[in-house]
Amino acid sequence: MNDFSELEGQLRKLRPAQPSPELTARIESALAGPETSPATAAVLKRERRFHFNWLPLGLGLAAATALVLFAFVRLHQQGAPEPGTASTTPAPAISTAQLVPAGLTQVVYHTRDEGVHFRSNSEQPMRRVRSHTRETLQWRNPKTGATLRISYPREEVSLIPVSGQ
Amino acid sequence: MENVPTDENWKTRFSQLAPGLVLFARQWTRSAADAEDVVQEAFVKFWRRNHDIGNRGLLYATVRSVALDLLRRDSRRARREATALSDSDQFVPPAFDVEDDSQRALVAALDLLPDEQREVLTLKIWNELTFAEIASALGISQNTVASRYRYALAALKKNLPST
Fold first, then answer.
1. Using CA atoms, how far apart are residues B134 and B113, in angstroms rounded to an integer?
2. Structural domains in chain B (count)
3. Which residues in chain B have Cβ-Cβ distances shorter than 8 Å to A129?
4. pLDDT of A91-125, one tens digit each?
5. Taking every pair of C-alpha atoms in chain B, what is the biggest distance, in angstroms?
6. Strands across the sheet containing A100-118
7. Residue A95 main-chain phi, psi, to 5 deg
């Protein structure tokens, strides 16, 4: 570490350029003004508030529910045949053996730290982390080896309180 | 809320911090004016919420966040500016007050550093943050901060003409 001390000394001698004298005055007027209008409104747009994208999750869950219901109804129908129905009907592609849950995988394939944000009506700064996940549910028919797999994307936004100390 | 902002309070502290804050913001902006806009918005946002100005990790995290937001939102504008700058070779005010050739060489070597190393060096040397504060501002571990700092110094030493 010590062999860098001379270099660190040279770096400390470098003085950052002074900001323009107007900067302090601009901040002063921004602080004096209403909170809702940032002084650099023309350049910096107001930050978007927390928003959870429910669409992919909703569609995925709806599809999963529909498929599970479909499988359930089919199994139920075959488990209790109507009296009088000809028993020579060939077995359907999905046999009467139950599909049993075989697995759930959640793969987080992208996580992005979107920096520190302030939520409305909150003094507490929060770090916003957005993650994209693919969830896969799987059922298996132990007799036939047939599998049913449902996969859907999921986007999640987490707000983590920042202590800063 | 023991830190109720007063005029002389923020002005005194801000005047001490301003050069380093603007230098830090300049890493993501193409001009000193943009960097000052970033510092202005970040400081106003930070101060309005009565945060303790001693909480420097959070102050620099706010500057970084505002700068990155600006970069994302105005990427098209930045591209236009980049093209315009390279086309017309406009004068860009230097980030440092350079006194001699050795300092000029040092600034040139700094420009060659990878962004993540220069970011740590800027916070450590010219803003005098501790490794813990830098880790908090950048959202990385202290070990990562320390290694980036060492890599930055090693790279600088390598890139500097031998004296």
1. 18
2. 2
3. none
4. 455 555 578 888 888 888 888 888 887 777 777 78
5. 52
6. A100-118, A125-140, A147-161
7. -75, 175
The token pair that represents A47 in the structure block: 């930050």
d(CA A92, CA B104) in angstroms, rounded, equals: 81
Chain-chain contact of B55 with A165 (C-beta, under 8 angstroms) = yes
Tokens of A23: 């900067």
CA–CA dist B70, B138 (Å, integer): 17
Tell if the pTM clears 0.80, that is, is over it.
no
Distance of alpha carbon B81 from alpha carbon B34, whole angstroms: 12
Q: What are the sequence ranges of the domains in chain A?
A: 6-80+93-161
E strands, A54-123, where? 100-118
- ipTM value, please give it: 0.79
Task: Pick from A27, A48, A159 the residue to mutate for testing the B interface (most B CBs within 10 Å).
Answer: A27
State the Cα–Cα distance between residues B137 and B66, nearest whole angstrom. Answer: 13
B16 and B38 part of one domain: yes
Residues on chain B touching A7 (C-beta within 8 angstroms): 153, 156-157, 160
Among residues B60, B90, B120, the one where a domain terminates is B90
Q: How open is the CA angle A125-A129-A130, to the nearest 5 degrees?
A: 140
Structure tokens at A66: 């529909």
